């Protein structure tokens, strides 16, 4: 199975900050990577797919980058609604796997 | 509007069985890859099972041989039959859709809680 490792596990930031979350794959997944946002008690929500394509309706302050084994999710200016847990997920192999999550907390 | 709604979660003893349902609206279940993804309390997301558009199925190693995914096209519903339940199966189970193999999970239900405990 392809292992996905996110860093950091927790990130403390303030409104207006630029934040970046990293996701590393144990082998190349080309660009077959998605990012999800999850708020407590809610289902995950797709933000970005194919590493850098923004899902319809997702604010442009979210952006994704990378290819191969290293990927990033950047929020250019953190908003109050963005405090949540973020997961990366690979869909290159037939057994789809998620990162362990990054919780973005209010500083 | 594409929507999936899960049901069937419950409290069950170890070794017991449960069947989850995922009712779809706004699309036909046989045209999408239908999945179950679970989340244990305070933990991350784990893909559990998929039923492909052609009807083939696949499972995570953690549930292989105990869980069975199926589809009823007449009811536009998918199911997850869970047997030999263990305490580590305790989780919220989400139904999710994929348009293609090389596609993300784009639509998610609200989830249904399964608790396995004595």
Q: Can you walk me through this structure?
A:
- The complex is a heterodimer of chains A (107) and B (118).
- Chain A is built from no helices and eleven strands.
- With 107 residues, chain A is an all-beta fold.
- In chain A, β4 and β5 form a beta hairpin.
- With 118 residues, chain B is mainly beta.
- Chain B is 0% helix and 50% strand.
- The relative contact order of chain B is 0.31.
- The chains are: A mainly beta (107), B mainly beta (118).
- Chains A and B meet through β4, β5 and β10 of A and β5 of B.
Annotate the secondary structure layout.
The complex is a heterodimer of chains A (107) and B (118).
Chain A: E1 4-7, E2 10-13, E3 19-25, E4 33-38, E5 45-49, E6 53-54, E7 62-67, E8 70-75, E9 85-90, E10 97-98, E11 102-106
Parallel strand pairs in A: 2-11
Antiparallel strand pairs in A: 1-3, 3-8, 4-5, 4-9, 5-6, 7-8, 9-10, 9-11
Chain B: E1 3-7, E2 11-12, E3 18-25, E4 33-39, E5 45-51, E6 57-59, E7 67-72, E8 77-82, E9 91-98, E10 107-108, E11 112-116
Parallel strand pairs in B: 2-11
Antiparallel strand pairs in B: 1-3, 3-8, 4-5, 4-9, 5-6, 7-8, 9-10, 9-11
Features:
heterodimer; A: 107 residues; mainly beta; seven-stranded mixed sheet; 11 strands; globular; B: 118 residues; four-stranded antiparallel sheet; 50% strand
């Amino acid at each position: 199975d392809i292992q996905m490792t996110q860093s950091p596990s927790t990130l403390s930031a303030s409104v207006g900050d630029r934040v970046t979350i990293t996701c590393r794959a144990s082998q190349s997944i080309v660009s077959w990577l998605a990012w999800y946002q999850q708020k407590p008690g809610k289902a995950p929500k797709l933000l970005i797919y194919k590493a850098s394509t923004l899902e319809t309706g997702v604010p442009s302050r979210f952006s994704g980058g990378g290819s191969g084994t290293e990927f990033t999710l950047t929020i250019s200016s953190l908003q109050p609604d963005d405090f949540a847990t973020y997961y990366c997920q690979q869909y290159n192999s037939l057994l789809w796997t998620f990162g362990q999550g990054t919780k973005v907390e209010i500083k | 509007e594409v929507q999936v709604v899960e049901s069937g979660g419950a409290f069950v003893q170890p070794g017991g069985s449960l069947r989850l349902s995922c009712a779809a609206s706004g699309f036909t279940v046989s045209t999408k890859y239908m999945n179950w993804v679970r989340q244990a309390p305070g933990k991350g997301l784990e893909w559990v099972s998929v039923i492909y558009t052609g009807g083939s199925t696949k499972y995570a190693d953690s549930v292989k041989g105990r869980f069975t995914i199926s589809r009823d096209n007449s009811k536009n519903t998918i199911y997850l039959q869970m047997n030999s339940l263990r305490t580590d199966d305790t989780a919220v189970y989400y139904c999710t859709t994929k348009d293609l193999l090389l596609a993300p999970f784009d639509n998610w239900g609200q989830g249904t809680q399964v608790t396995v405990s004595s």
